[in-house]
Amino acid sequence: MTEPQASAVDLFPDAPDLARRVAFILEIDKLKQVLRRTLLLDASRVENDAEHSWHMATMALVLHPYAEPGTDLLTVLKMLLVHDIVEIDAGDTYVYDAAASQTQAEREERAAERLFGLLPEPHAHDLREVWRAFERRDTREARFARAIDRLQPLLHSYHTEGRVWRQNAVAAADVRRAMAIIGDSSPRLATLAEDMISDAERRGLLR
């Protein structure tokens, strides 16, 4: 009979701080199981949250020259890497799902308390505040991170011929409303977004 797998606490009984950090690392592996609506560019399947977070972090590295002057890239990367961890408990909320969006903040706040609370203090508080700053969008870094968060699925929807838009009866006006926050951080990226939306509308990919 196979023995039960030891927990992080069992493995590090004399190092509770390390045990909690390892427990958090193991818990966030579940992000790989949270599926989004966004299709991969080959349209073979939808992406998961871990893939989404990696892709956005890489986008931030590449697109950082288009952020507001003085935007700290390391802070942006922290936001992009941790901002979807709450979806382990709260699930992914599709930006065009008005009903689910009404309960999103409450669900995600509860999730943040539990998930970041797995870490020892002050690290738990620090990462929770990184997540909250992303949600508030009141700094240059948060505005850029949120812009990237909106731009990434737009790129995928546009380059997969609007398949997810059509499946969910998304209108061009809905996409423009969702993408408006990109302009708060980067006029150039906002223009890129509008060019894609306008072309998709012209080609009938958006109603």
UniProtKB/TrEMBL annotation:
InterPro entries reported for this sequence: HD_domain, YfbR/HDDC2
Single Gene Ontology MF annotation: 5'-deoxynucleotidase activity
Domain HD: 28-176
Top-level taxon of origin: Bacteria
GO cellular component: cytoplasm
Keywords of this entry: Hydrolase, Metal-binding
Gene3D superfamilies in UniProt: Hypothetical protein af1432
Pfam families: HD_3
Keyword Metal-binding carried by entry: yes
Name of this chain's protein: HD domain-containing protein
Species in which this protein is naturally found: Xanthobacter tagetidis
Lineage start: Bacteria, Pseudomonadati, Pseudomonadota, Alphaproteobacteria, Hyphomicrobiales
